Model the fold of this input.
Amino acid sequence: MRTPIIAGNWKMNKTPAEAVAFVNAIKDNLAPYTAVERVVCPPYVALPGVADALKGTEIAVGAQDVHWEEDGAFTSQIAPAMLEGLVKYVIIGHSETRAYQGVSDEMVNKKVKAALAHGLHPIIACGESLEINEAGGTRSFVEKQIRAAFADIPASDLANIVVAYEPIWAIGTGKSASAELANEIIGSIRVILEDIYGADVANAMRIQYGGSVKPANMVEYMSQPHIDGALVGGASLKEDAFVDLVRLANEAKGLS
Ligand code: PEP
Done:
């Protein structure tokens, strides 16, 4: 059985002090839901404080991006070695980095390889624009993103990778994809992974949905067979909402 994973992507929100106060306020409330993997992804500058505050808990920390080079003249960027020992996860290919920082499919693949080489677990984000969705191009667009992201990644690394299907038109808009549609596209991602790696690996792979997930729609997503949790933006910034999401994920999968 795949362990559901709920990851909060805080984006460019919360100062280091606010981030530490936030995790201190929720960590005890998240503790009972041990069957769901719980992750927070604060901005880089908050990572040391948050990692420290969460020491001794089962709540994992993630970064929001990583560069593929080891070091060098890449102003503003963070190398994978800088995250080693600090975070477990790193989000790669989020649509906002693709849109505002020019992250391409090829760069996503390089970032994934670099992250894995440093023992980091990538959360690979993919998803289509409204235009592509309305033109009926979702499956082929997502397939291209997935095949590029996984190029030359050996099957032995797959247990350390999570995929997040996040239709761009659903991110931060309040306009979420229906649970059935999200399940259908995530199922098609599993078929692509099966084509590359075989059924056993594809069936073990965790694939999240992301896009305006909130406590009110969490159960619908978690009731779908292919959906293994959520990558959450807005709702992960609110203490009660984030704890509720994790609790509902536990309950919906029939876990204690
Ligand atoms: C995200 O940024 O990954 C996201 C899903 O945001 P939101 O939940 O706010 O739509």
In short: The chain has a mean pLDDT of 96. Residues 5-252 form a domain with the TIM Barrel fold (CATH 3.20.20.70). The pocket of phosphoenolpyruvate is lined by residues 9, 166, 171-172, 210-213, 231-235 (CB under 6 Å).
